[in-house]
Every structure is written in structure tokens, then in C-alpha cells.
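S1.2 Input.
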Amino acid sequence: MRQISAKELAEWRADPQRPAPQLLDVREAWEFDLCRLEGAQHVPMREIPASVDRLDPARPVVCICHHGGRSQQVAIFLESRGFSQVYNLSGGVDAWSRDVDPALRRY
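S1.3 Output.
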């Protein structure tokens, strides 16, 4: 599992030469309703074990939460299940709103 900053993720998503990552938002529903990265798939952390088959292990996965703690745990779990291209969004959606998209609601 690798850490990725909000700015690095923004650059990745803007690069047409790189395959788009799967964005996995593991926050609770009320958090996801407040703000989210465009295109993120919402699967609350507690549902990950039962939902891991919804992800493509051959594609990169970026795990996202509020500040990066829960998503790091999910990233470690995904690696233990054979996912080889797993990233944790360092600082979570909070860092994204500070460093990339100030219009994104902070909480």
C-alpha cells in the first residue's frame, strides 16, 4: 500500500495516458452525502469484506476517508486479499478540499 497526496491524485486523474484509478470512499453515508470526489464508489468501511468483489483487483484502487486513517486500514485489507495496486489518499477528503478543490465542503 502506497500513500498518495491529493495533488498527486489530481495529477493522475488529469493524465489521459494513465488508467483511471478506482476511487473507493469508505466513509459513512452521512459523510459521503456531505462531500465526495467525483466518480468515487461508496462502500462504508464495515461493508468492505462483503463487498470486495465489487472491485477489480487488476486496476489501481485509491482508498478515501475523511483524514486517511480508515482508508489506510481498508488499503491494508485489500492488499491482504491480493490487490497489488492500492493507494491511500493521505489526508483524505479534507486534504483534497484544502489542496485541490476548495469548493468541496469541509467538515
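S1.4 Remarks. The beta strands are 2-4, 22-25, 41-42, 61-64, 86-89.
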